[in-house]
């Protein structure tokens, strides 16, 4: 029986006139991965920062409870129990890999002996052992990211906060990091994750909150979000300027049509309906039928238009 | 659900020490290029100005030979400059370019811990730089043992004082070039008019009160007293000034930097 270790009620944050986060509430159960999905500027990072006291929430009737502590009153306890991977890699370039970790072990007041063992284990865990004495400048982007994750794990955190952990990394590294996050979860580490990779959210998150303009638009298990918010299949028709269109009279009621420049999407729960539609009025190669994914849900929820922060 | 031993986040002195340790490790990483200049610079200065120019200054200054006068002053100006560089350019780069503080603040420490640790580190650098000058002065026989061994302590106080001032300045700075005003407009005049290269008493009467207001003058008076082993009651006022300066300016520096570090 698991219980909520993070309970957030009604938090908001304004920067001047901009309301970055508006009345957000959520709770996370122990050992689960909770994801925040949203476009750039949606307020995901601000939410994370409010949890580890890097950002002070607006003073209203909000409540934040992390392992029984409020970051405004007990920031040291929460920081001690958490590991944070921020968006930027902020490693000390002057120092090598081990020295970077040793410095952080001092921040947690871990004895040198314990720290050395822990660092050896973490470098092995994140497959960085060969780079133990390398300079930071010699590391690839993926290695730096893994090192920052190792740094966040130094103190055996009960809560791991990952702010876009795999942005800009190649698929191999991304899958490696996903695998490690799953292993940590098995050891009862609670994980909070922000991402704008749908695949990542789908792969890792037990629960997902889609944010847009600082608000919660939808929340639930990834599969349920898809089931509840989008049809099962989509027929995509390309190059619509060239007249590759389905004649209107063939489109039936159970099909939802979505026009965007260059592409028309026909959504339907029944693949045969879409197959029929395609074969009767389109040439092979002008269309593509596939299962819908989280990205379709996301785009439907947050809109295809760019906002001024993207 | 959480048992009490998880509350064992590091105590205050360990948190301050960890910040100090971080800076020390990064600084000593390039020990040769970082530790050599503090010894070389006073050497060049004393040879060039003290021996070269000093030959023409036959009158004793402040009761001692010119090279003694200048040498004692260098004990604290070196602490002033190293601390000012550390907490202006250094702090700004860690704050804005490297984002070092963002990472550190995710570990169990508060902004107050972070900045006080930084000030203590700048003080330590002041101590070390004063010590380097002292070594050169001792080699040339310009100051005498054992009293002069106390002078790095004044270097420490000077370092902390200028750390507080520099951090306050840094809290206002938007682009790194603004520090040029600080160095040229504040520190250079202090170097020349705080009794380092000639006694404050030689300043025009209307300028003298200004010299009393600026921080370096008080460090200089303390360090001269130690070098000449001649203590007067006014030194208590100098110590009080330094203490109050560190507390008041440091308080505002922390208050303003907090706004930049925690949104």
Structure description:
The complex is a heterodimer of chains A (310) and B (263). Chain A is of the alpha/beta class. Chain A contains ten helices and 13 strands. Chain A has two domains: 218 residues, P-loop containing nucleotide triphosphate hydrolases (Rossmann fold); 61 residues, Alpha-Beta Plaits (2-Layer Sandwich). In chain A, the strands form three sheets. In chain A, strands 5-6-7-3-8-9 form a six-stranded mixed beta sheet, with helices on both faces. Chain A has a four-stranded antiparallel beta sheet with strand order 11-12-10-13, covered by helices on one side. In chain A, a hairpin with a 2-residue loop joins strand 11 and strand 12. In chain A, helix 3 crosses helix 4. Chain A is globular. The longest helix of chain B is centred in the first third of the chain and has 32 residues. By secondary structure, chain B is mainly alpha-helical. The two termini of chain B are 31 Å apart. Classes of the chains: A alpha/beta (310), B mainly alpha (263). At the A-B interface, strand 1, helix 2, strand 5 and helix 3 of A face helix 1 and helix 5 of B.
* Secondary-structure element order of chain A, N to C: EEEHEHEHHHEHEHEEHEEEHEH
Radius of gyration of chain A: 23 Å
Termini separation of chain B: 31 Å
Distance between the termini of chain A: 41 Å
* Number of separate domains of chain B: 1
Query: What is the top-level CATH class of the largest domain in chain A?
Result: Alpha Beta
What average pLDDT do the residues of chain A reach? 87
Query: Count the helices of chain B. How many?
Result: 11
- Main beta sheet strand tally, sense and closure of chain A: 6 strands, mixed
The proportion of residues forming helix of chain A, as a percent range, comes to 25-40%
């Amino acid at each position: 029986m698991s219980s909520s270790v993070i309970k957030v009620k009604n938090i908001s944050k304004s920067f001047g006139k901009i309301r970055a986060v508006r009345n957000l509430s959520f709770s996370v159960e122990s050992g689960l991965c909770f994801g925040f999905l949203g476009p750039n500027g949606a307020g995901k990072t601000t939410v994370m920062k409010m949890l580890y006291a890097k950002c002070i929430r607006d003073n209203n009737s909000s409540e934040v409870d992390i392992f029984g502590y409020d970051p405004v009153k007990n920031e040291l306890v929460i920081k001690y129990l958490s590991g944070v991977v921020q968006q930027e890699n902020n490693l000390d370039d002057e120092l090598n890999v081990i020295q970077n970790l040793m410095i952080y072990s001092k921040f947690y007041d871990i004895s040198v002996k314990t720290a050395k063992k822990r660092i050896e284990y973490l470098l092995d865990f994140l497959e960085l052992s060969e780079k133990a004495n390398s300079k930071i400048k010699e590391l690839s982007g993926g290695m730096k990211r893994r090192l920052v994750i190792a740094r966040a794990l130094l103190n055996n955190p009960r809560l791991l906060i990952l702010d876009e952990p795999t942005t800009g990394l190649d698929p191999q590294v991304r899958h490696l990091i996903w695998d490690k996050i799953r292993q940590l979860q098995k050891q009862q580490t609670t994980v909070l994750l922000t991402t704008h990779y749908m695949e990542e959210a789908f792969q890792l998150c037990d629960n997902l909150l889609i944010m847009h303009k600082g608000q919660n638009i939808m929340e639930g298990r990834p599969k349920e979000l898809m089931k509840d918010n989008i049809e099962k299949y989509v027929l995509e028709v390309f190059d619509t300027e060239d007249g590759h269109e389905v004649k209107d009279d063939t489109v039936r009621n159970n099909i939802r049509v979505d026009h965007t420049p260059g592409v028309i999407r026909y959504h339907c729960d029944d693949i045969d309906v879409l197959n029929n539609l395609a074969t009767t009025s389109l040439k092979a190669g002008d269309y593509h039928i596939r299962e819908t994914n989280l990205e379709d849900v996301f785009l439907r929820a947050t809109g295809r238009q760019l906002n001024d922060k993207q | 659900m959480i048992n009490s031993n998880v509350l064992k986040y590091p105590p205050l002195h360990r948190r301050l020490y960890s910040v100090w340790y971080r800076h020390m490790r990064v600084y000593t990483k390039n020990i040769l290029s970082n530790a050599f200049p503090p010894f070389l610079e006073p050497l060049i200065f004393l040879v060039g100005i003290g021996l070269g120019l000093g030959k023409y200054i036959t009158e004793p200054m402040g009761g001692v030979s010119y090279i003694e006068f200048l040498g004692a002053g260098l004990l604290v100006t070196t602490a002033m400059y190293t601390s000012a560089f550390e907490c202006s350019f250094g702090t700004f780069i860690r704050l804005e370019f490297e984002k070092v503080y963002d990472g550190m603040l995710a570990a169990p420490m508060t902004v107050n811990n972070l900045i006080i640790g930084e000030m203590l580190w700048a003080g330590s650098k002041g101590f070390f730089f004063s010590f380097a000058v002292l070594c050169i002065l001792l080699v040339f026989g310009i100051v005498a043992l054992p009293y002069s061994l106390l002078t790095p302590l004044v270097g420490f106080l000077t370092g902390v004082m200028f750390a507080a001032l520099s951090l306050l300045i840094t809290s206002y700075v938007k682009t790194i070039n603004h520090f040029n005003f600080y160095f040229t407009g504040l520190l250079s005049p202090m170097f020349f008019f705080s009794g380092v290269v000639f006694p404050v008493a030689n300043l025009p009467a209307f300028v003298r009160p200004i010299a009393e207001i600026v921080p370096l003058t008080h460090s200089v008076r303390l360090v001269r007293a130690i070098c000449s082993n001649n203590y007067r009651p006014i030194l208590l006022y100098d110590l009080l000034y330094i203490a109050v300066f560190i507390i008041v300016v440091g308080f505002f520096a922390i208050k303003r930097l907090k706004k930049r570090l925690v949104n």
